[in-house]
TrEMBL record, chain A:
Membrane-topology annotation of the record: Multi-pass membrane protein
Protein's UniProt name: Polyamine ABC transporter substrate-binding protein
Subcellular location: Cell membrane
Organism domain of life: Bacteria
Organism expressing this protein natively: Bradyrhizobium iriomotense
Sequence similarity: Belongs to the binding-protein-dependent transport system permease family. CysTW subfamily.
UniProtKB/TrEMBL annotation, chain C:
UniProt keyword Transmembrane, yes or no: yes
ABC transmembrane type-1 domain sequence ranges: 72-260
UniProt KW keywords: Cell inner membrane, Cell membrane, Membrane, Transmembrane, Transmembrane helix, Transport
Cellular compartment(s): Cell inner membrane; Cell membrane
Pfam families: BPD_transp_1 (PF00528)
Lineage: Bacteria, Pseudomonadati, Pseudomonadota, Alphaproteobacteria, Hyphomicrobiales
Gene3D superfamilies, per database record: MetI-like
Membrane topology value: Multi-pass membrane protein
Name listed for the protein in its UniProt record: Polyamine ABC transporter permease
Record family assignment: Belongs to the binding-protein-dependent transport system permease family.
Source organism: Bradyrhizobium iriomotense
Residues annotated as transmembrane: 12-35, 76-95, 107-131, 143-164, 185-206, 241-264
Keyword Transmembrane helix: yes
Taxonomic superkingdom: Bacteria
Amino acid sequence: MSSIAMPTTKTWISARDHSDSLRPLALAAPLLLLLLFSFGAPIVALLSRAVYEPTIANALPLTIAALRQDSGAGVPDEAVFRAFAIDLKDGQAAGTVYEFAKNLNTRLPGARSQVLRVARLAAQDQAITKEAMIKAAPLLGEEKSWSAIRVGTNRFTSFFLLSAFDLRWTGQWTIGAVPADQAVFLRVFGRTFLIATLVTLATLALAFPLAYLMTNLRPAMAAIVLVLVLLPFWTSILVRTAAWTVILQKYGILNDLMLWLGVTSDRIELMYSRTGLIIAMTHIQLPFTLLPIYSVMRSVQPSQLRAAQSLGGRPFTVFRRIYLPQVMPGVLAGCLLTFILCLGYYITPVLIGGASDQLISNFIANYVNAELNWEMAAALSFVLLASTLGLYITMTRYLGLDLFKMG
Amino acid sequence: MKSVCRTNLLALAGAAIICQLQPVGAEELTIMATGGAWQAALRQAWFEPFAKKAGVKFNEQEYTGELGKIKAMVETGNVPIDLVTVETSTVLQGCDAGVLIRIDYSKVADRSRFLPGTALDCGVGIDVYGDVLAYDTTVLKEAPTSVLDIFDTKKFPGKRAMRKAPAQNLEWALMADGVPIAEVYKVLGTPDGVDRAFKKLDTIKKDIVWWDAGAQPPQLLASKEVVMTTAWNGRIQSAIDQDKRPFAIVWDNQIVEYDMIAIPKGAKNLDLAYKYLAYVAQPDVGAQLGRFIPYGPVLSDSTPFVPKDVLPKLPTAPDHMKNYLVGDVEFWGDHGEDLVKRFNAWLAQ
Amino acid sequence: MLLSPYPTNAERIRVAALWFWCVLVLIFLVVPIFVPVPLSFNSGSFFTFPLAGVSTRWYEVVLGTPRWRAAIGNSLLIGFGTTILATVLGTLTAIGLSDPKFPGRRFVVPLLISPLIVPVVVTAVGTYLFYARIGLANTYGGIILAHTVLASPFVVVTVSASLAGFDRNLMRATSILGAKPLTGFLRVMLPLILPGVLSGAAFAFVTSFDEVVVVQFLANAQQRTLPLEMFTGLREQLSPAITAAATLMMGLSILLLIVANLLARRSRKNAGAASE
C-alpha cells in the first residue's frame, strides 16, 4: 500500500518538531469540540442515571436515620415506621411521594398503591401505628420489602445495570438471575447482535459484486447505476418500510408472484417474521455497505491488476492478493457502518418484525417514552454502547481493522 | 408566534447564541395531542369554539402519545405546552413521575359529574372509547358474537391481531378462561391469575399478529392479513363510514377505556388551561365530540345532548353495555411495569 | 473493461454471472422503491393492491395543504444544512485523523463512532436537555446541529476509507512545488477523495432526512419535518398521502441527479477541451 513508500511513523514523529501534530488536531477540532460538548457531555450526564438514583434517598431522610439505629435485618421496629410515616406525610405535602412510590414499585412490584395508601393515611393521622400501616400496606410487614427499601436508600445503585443483564441481588453479598419469566434483556441483546450480523453479511454479498461491476462500467452507465443506488435515500425509511409491508404481506406482491411462478404452492407468512425483517433491513442498509466499498474500489489502479495478471497470476490469486487488500478499508467501513446501524433499528422491527424480533432499541425507546424509566434506559444504552465499543476496539486491536484507517 | 428563540447561524459558529424573547400579544393556549382524525374531531368540537368564545389563539402540536418529551421539558423548566391529551395509563405514569400537575377540580367541575374513573388526580376524562373485536364480513362466513371468540381457533381459524401490550389482552384471556367480569382484576392481582392468563394466551400465541399503532388494525383487515383483530372502535367505524369497508364490530365483552387531558408541570398559561377544562366539562359541550368521531362523553349529564344518530355507534350505547369491563387504572399503575416486563419476556420466548 | 482483451471462456462465464447477480441486486434495490408510486394514486385510504380506484386525491392533500408543504420545505432545509455542515466538518476531521501524527487517536475514535451506537432516543433526550438550557431547542440551528452530530461520523468514515488509498507523498510534492496547503488540497487531494466525500454527503443527507426521534424532541410545530409528519400520522391514519409525498420527493431527486450528472459531464468536457 501507499505507506510502503513512506518512512515509519516513529521516524516521522521524531523527525518533525512538536508543533506539526497540532495541524491535524486543528483540522479535526471543530467537529471534535461539537461532539464533545453537544453530544458527549449530555450523553454521559444522561447515562450516569443508570447508577445514580437518589429518589428514594431524598424521599426518606428520617427513615434512613432511623434505620441506622435499627440494626436488625428484617422488618424494623415502631420507631422506623414512625419516621417512615413522617417522611411519607412530607412527601405527600410536597408532591414527591408519587415519584417515590413509582420508584419503589420498580424494585418491589405492587408497592405503588400500598405506599400511596399509607401516605394518605399518614397525612390524616399523625400518630399512625406500625400495625395500622401494615394493615393498610401488607407489603410493609414483609422482610423483602424492607431489604428493597434499605438497598434503595443508597444513592448509587447497581440495580439497573444488573437488571440489564437479567441479574439481581439475591442476598446481601450474592447476585443471582431474575426469575425466568422476567428475564428478557440478555436474549434481546443476543438477538440484536445476531440480526445485525446476518444483515451485514447479506448486504456485503449483494453490494460487493455490484460495486465491482460499477467501477468497471463506462462512466455514463456507472452514473445511471449510481442514481439507482442513491434513489432509496430520497425515500423516507417509513415509506420504504410501508412498501415492504405491501410486498411481503400474505396477499402481497411477492406471494402473488411466487404463486404465479409456481415457486410455492401456498401463501407463506413473511410479514411479522424474522425473514421479512432481515429482507427489509438488508434493503435499507444496502447503500450504506455499498458506497464506501465503491468509493475505495474506484481509487484502485486497474493497471496494477493487469500487471499482476500479465506476470502470470491466476485470476483468483490476483483478486485475493492484490485487489482484496486494497479494497479492504472500504469493505470494513461499509460492513462496520451497517453492523452498527443495525444495532439501533427500531421503526422497521415494529412494523415488519414479529413479536420475537424486537431489538434492544425498541426496549430502550419504550423505557424512555412510555415507562418514563430513564434509569433503565440509561443502563441498557450503556451496556449497548460499552459492548459495541468493546467489540470495535477488540476488532481494531486483533484484526487490525479500523474505520478510520490511516493513509 | 410564540416567543421563539432565534439563533443566528453565523453567531452560532462562534458558539454565541442570541436568544430574543418576543413580547406575547394576545392570550394563547398550546395543546399537544396525538394527531390524525381524532385531533381533527377535537378541533372541530372543542378547540375552535373555545378559541372563538374566549378570544384566544389556540396552538396545536402533535406527538406520539408518550410522555418522554414532556418529562424532558419539565426537567429543563421550559414547558411551552399548556395541555396534553393522554391515555389513562399514561396519566398515572405522568402523575407518578411528577410530570403532570394534580388537577384542582374546584376550577373545572364537580368531580361527581364524571363517570367513575374518568376524573383522575392528574387527568380529566374527555371521551370514552371501546376496545372491541373487528372483522371483515366478506372473509368470515360466520360472525363472531363476542370479543372472546378471538380465542376460538377451531371455529375461526387463521391469524388474528391483538395490541402488543399486556393490558386488555390479559383481562380478555381470563374472561375467556371463565373468570367472571367482576373478578378479573382480583384474579389478575395474584401470581396464579397471571400464570392462568398467560397460559390462555399461549393457546393462540402462534396465530397472533401484534399491532402497535391504532391505524394498523383496519389496515390488517383490509390487507386480509388477519381474519379478526382487536381494535379501538373509532378506527373501525371510520373505515366503515368513510372508506366503505365491509367491516363489523363485536361489542360483547368490550373493555371500556377513556382518553384524558392533562396539564404538564410548569405550564405557562395555567388559568387559561383551567378555563378550557371547565368549558369542555359543560354537559352540552362535552357531548359535541361524538358528532365528529364515535367516542362517547365522560359526563353523566351529557348523554341527552348526544345526537340521536351517533348514539348507537358509541361504546356507551345501551346495546353495547350488556357485557363489558372497565379498565382498572390503579391496577395497571401497580402491576403495569411488572406485567409489561413479563409480557415482553413471554413474547420473546 | 471487465473482460481482458482476449477473454477465455471461464472469464466470459464469470462476467456473465457477475452481470446476472448484479441485475438481481438492482431489481431488489429499486423495485421496492417504486411500489409506493402506484399506491399514491389510490383513491381509497389503505395500503393494498388492487387499488380501490385511481385518483390524485393524495397529491392534492400533499401539495394543497400548507402543513405538508411546510414539512417538505423544513426537511429539505434541515437536510441540506446538515449535509453541508457535516460534510465540511467530517472531511476536515478525516484528513486530520489520517495524519499519522494525530495525537490521542485512541480517545477520539470512540467519540466519533458513539453517535452511531447510542440509541437515537437517548441521544434525543440528552441533546434536548442540553439544548433547552442554552436556548437551542425549537430552533432550526439546533436541529441542524443535532443532525450534524448524528451525520458527521458517516462522512468521517467514508472519507477516511478514501484517504486510505491516498498517497500522502502527493501532498508533500505539492508543497515542495510551492503550492499553498489550500491549493494542494483543492487541486490534488479533493479530486482524489471526492467519491468518498460525496458518498459521505449522501449519508449525511439521508441521516437527517430520515430522522424522526431527535426532531420529535427538538422541533416545535413550525419546524415539523416530513418524517415527523408521517410518523405522528401513523398512529391515527396510515394514509397513502405519505406515498404521494415519497413519489414527489423521488421525482425531484431523479431530476436533481440528472441535472447534476449533465453539469458534471459538461464540466468534464470543458476540462477535457481545455487540457487538449
